[in-house]
Amino acid sequence: MNIEDFHKIIKNALNKGPSAYDFINKESINCGEKNQFCKDLAALLNQIKVAYECTKKLSEGNLNINCSKTNFFAMPAKNLQSNLNHLTWQAQQISDGDYNHKVSFLGDFSEAFNKMTESLKEKEALGKKLVEVLEEKATTDSLTKIANRSKFNEILTYEMQRAERYQNGLSLIMFDIDHFKKINDTYGHIKGDETLKRLAEIVENNIRKPDFFAR
User: Fold this and answer.
1) Which reaction does it catalyse (predicted)?
2) Does one domain contain both 20 and 78?
């Protein structure tokens, strides 16, 4: 095998890719005094082929590659595999609601990934706040800001069940404002609303912490 043959083999390999390496292996090469060189060339091309196959699998989303640590050409692929495995784990944590993970090892992708995480975190916080606001509106009297009838029914049902379970007593007090209609008729509905709000404040400030007050 002369230099032209080597040139042809290498050129063919570069043009056709790893498939051209298949006929270059230690078992099939036998060229006399150049035999060791041929074997070394075959080993080199084989390492390149393995590195190519590892990189190809990674490009297809397959993270289960097995490249030798002694393969110099496969070292970047091994490093990328490690980073992508860690990134996959981080993505799983984020999907479970842990938004404290940051990526710093993938250049521009890291910045985009971190921005996405921050955006998800902000949207979840906004969603929780919206749920709290809607829940408050659904259970609060809009005028007096105390619990409404719906919340009262919920709490009363719970307290009655608890009293029955533990064989404890339960106190329920109901009251209204005598002649409240006269306040509205005489001073107007705005003053009537102010009277209700002031009454609610007085009651709220004079009941115990375990007591529940609703309209």
Assistant:
1) 2 GTP = 3',3'-c-di-GMP + 2 diphosphate
2) yes
String of DSSP letters for the chain: --HHHHHHHHHHHHHHGGGGGTT--TTT---GGGHHHHHHHHHHHHHHHHHHHHHHHHHTT-------TT-GGGHHHHHHHHHHHHHHHHHHHHHTT-------SSTHHHHHHHHHHHHHHHHHHHHHHHHHHHHHHHHB-TTT-SB-HHHHHHHHHHHHHHHHHHT----------TTHHHHHHHH-HHHHHHHHHHHHHHHHTTS-TT---B-
Give pTM, 2 decimals. Answer: 0.52
Say whether both 110 and 165 belong to one domain.
Answer: no
User: Which residue among 83, 117, 139 closes a domain?
Assistant: 139
The string of pLDDT tens digits covering residues 52-85 is: 888 888 888 888 888 777 888 888 888 888 888 8
For 69-126, write each residue's pLDDT tens digit: 788 888 888 888 888 888 888 888 888 888 888 888 778 888 888 888 889 889 988 9
Domain range for 76 is 3-95
